[in-house]
Amino acid sequence: MNEPRPLVAMIHAVPAAHRIAEEAFAREFPQATVWNVLDDRLLDDARDADGLTDALRRRMLRLIGHVMDGGAQGLLLTCSSYGEVVDTARALWDAPVLKSDEAMFTAALTGPYRRIAVVASTAPAVPAALAQLEALVPVLRPDRPVDIVTALSEEAATARGPEATARHLADALHATGSTDADVVLLAQYSLTPARDALAALLGVPVLDGAGAAARELRGRLTRVPGAGRTTTAAVSR
After folding, report:
1. What are the phi and psi torsion angles at 188 (to 5°)?
2. Where are the domains of the chain?
3. Roughly how many angstroms between the first and final C-alpha of the chain, as a whole number?
4. Residue 111 CB contacts under 8 Å (≥ 6 apart), including other chains
5. Which CATH number fits domain 7-100+211-221: 3.20.20.150, 3.40.50.1860, 2.30.30.280, 3.40.50.970?
6. Which protein family is named in the record (predicted)?
């Protein structure tokens, strides 16, 4: 008799995140049945309001309630702008609810990495990722030092193809002296297709948020051997 397939919901604010996250789950957690929910006004409305309002927080909680009532056994919120709502959701529902990049940050901070680089192609993504990482440091590795560096390549946002994107990201890391990092974190889901090419250029592991989230939920919702381990795109140094 076949094992039931875990139902994992994903709530998106932009259509591109839908495709990236689905590809990650197909690769890392193929046992899951994925349920995508898209509200493509979430991000624009938050920008227009200059941040999250109580109305927007309630709206996101209604979306979360919708998938939980529909039987979701796990949830990934792919929009980092609404990450704070996850803390409320965890108090209301027992199913695991993940912020967009939380599993990636956890994997980086609990791994053997001394120097962590965060790379992005849009300026707001850098301080957002940095704030989340720094907030987790005293919780996840209070007794181990960590050096966090960042790099921004706006050219990568318009590059044609994963290889070109990876080259722009690598150039940005070189320009900031960050190529000696032990691991590189992609601050946006949109950069995920460049993960393998960037790892090959730099010779270090590269983590992406969607893949890390898929592995985290796989570890929580199945008993597959090796579930929950962090795998990365990497080459020998």
Report:
1. -135, 145
2. 7-100+211-221, 114-204
3. 44
4. 183, 230
5. 3.40.50.1860
6. Belongs to the HyuE racemase family.
The pTM (predicted TM-score) of the whole model is 0.83
The runs of H, that is alpha helices, within 79-208 are 84-92, 102-110, 125-140, 162-175, 195-202
| Tokens coding 146 | 């960590």
Q: Is 83 exposed, middle or buried (0-12, 13-18, 19+ CB in 10 A)?
A: middle
Q: What is the mean pLDDT of the chain?
A: 90
pLDDT in tens, 160-209: 999 999 999 999 999 998 888 999 999 999 899 999 999 999 999 999 99
- C-beta atoms surrounding 142 within 10 Å: 7
Strand order in the sheet with 7-12: 33-38, 7-12, 74-77, 97-98
